[in-house]
Amino acid sequence: MNKTLAGLKVVELSTFIAVPACARFFADHGADVIKVEAKGGDAVRWNGVSEGRSGSPYENTTFDLENANKRGIVLNLKSETGKEILFKLLEDADIFLTNWRPQALAKAGLTYEELHEKFPKMVYGTLTGYGDKGPDKDLPGYDFTAFWARGGIMDSLRQKDEWPGNLIPGMGDHISGLLLSAGVMAALFNAQRTGVGERVCINLLHTSIWDQAIMLQAAQYTEYGQKYPISRRTADNPFNCAYRCSDGRFMQISMPPFDMFYPRFMPLIGREDLVGNPRYTMDNITKNKLHSEFVDILTEAFEKKTVTEWDEILTKADIPHSMLKSWEEALEDEQAWANDVYYKMDYPTGNQRILVRQPIFIGNDLPDYKMAPLLGEHSEEILKGLGYTDEQLQELHEQGIYNTWEDLKSKHGG
Length: 414
Description:
By secondary structure, the chain is an alpha/beta fold.
């Protein structure tokens, strides 16, 4: 296991995907990450059926994706005693991570200002849908809404006059989560130098806008280009489109320097006759709005061969391209396996499943991939580490201050 961050303590008070993904970065690289949950657990624990997979708590690929290598405790933070335990956890914590909305943090007494006064060296990382300022700061934010829809990605990607495509959960969350880890690491570096922890803020809306910044900024130049959404037949650069092949599969090509690639590419599709034709320079295509005409030429050519045949031709010619792969094909991608993208997890159910690693490797040791904690699995272990005796644990348990998996498993299919 990679131990780059061994010795760091991270307390995570969050649900769903983005902040748990951030916390997993630290867990993967050796930090002790303690996930604090309410008795009902992180809602992602119970998403199996809606994602088309097993709902068993003993085979939870989504929860493991975001929460591998962590320890977990169930605390009743509505009680003063439960909150006292949380503060004990934070006494020697280097990092606190949360996705609670501003009004919820204020109500619970867990704002940055309040915790910074108690724990001045601790770095405080927060991730929300819309940020902590402005009229919409308290709105619920999921990546489908704050990242995909409001940020502008969803409407710009659809074909003109067509419905938006189906969305994939977690994309905005994963990007935002790793951005949060980068900011937290910078703040941690400064805290270790100065003894003062800072607040790191990320939100899904800003991440979405930043991801699209090239085209979003260009949208100000209304006298140039096209207003999105557009039709693929009028795309500014026809060399950056996907084309259907004879077997019904699609091939994506990407040649941003159109005029540079043009003389190399056209002979590959059997149109040597067009090499040197001034009609199809990028400047002339744009000035005379010949995009549809040129797209038709490429469309006709690609429909003459299968996607595999085109893959061989374009690979040999060193043309940037990729066939559009299904998820099932991506799970078998030789290049991905060669780069340790995947991990085979043996589950207590007797099944072996392929899980995905985070895309950050440090040094030569691969991150470990231990199953995420069952709900409350490490509650007593963590409390004993804080100095609570067996007698105190019994009293706290009877008061409902904490719970273990043994308490909760019958309710959740264990």
